[in-house]
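In line with agreed milestones, the collection of sequences with tokenised folds has grown. One record among many is set out beneath this paragraph:
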Amino acid sequence: MPLTPEEFRAKYPILIGWINKTVADHSSLAKPVSGLGFRRLPSYFSAPLLASSWVVGVARLPMPPLSQMGFTQFTEWERIEYGGITYMDTFFVTPGEVANEALHFHELVHVIQWRVLGAERFVAAYAEGLERFGYRSSPLEEMAYGLEDRFKYSTEVFDAEEAVRAALRS
């Protein structure tokens, strides 16, 4: 059964509280993306964005216990193994993905989405996308994967920040 706006408003504080605590608990391990030495990312993202976006290498991604929070429609999403996940300006990556520049690109797209939409609108849009289309076809993931593919398979350099802003405006 789809999440109603009322249910979302009631449960959102629990989820954002978990996200804030998770980011704070890992802040001492976080490194700015600008310090990771990736060769291509600075051509696609601004220096201020790279300096204010954080990455944390973890053995296992911190996934919110959505079912326990009452978001039972997302139990399948909780079980998928991902290489990275983004919460606000911080993303977490597994050991096998620490050096994967394309994954960092993808997660930076999510950082921009969080910033442009704000936390509540991002979470609402992400939840709606998961419910309606599933993970890979949800609009915010489609945007991130599409831009990541441009980054991986094209030699064309583009302003990824503007591409995200433009896509969110349309």
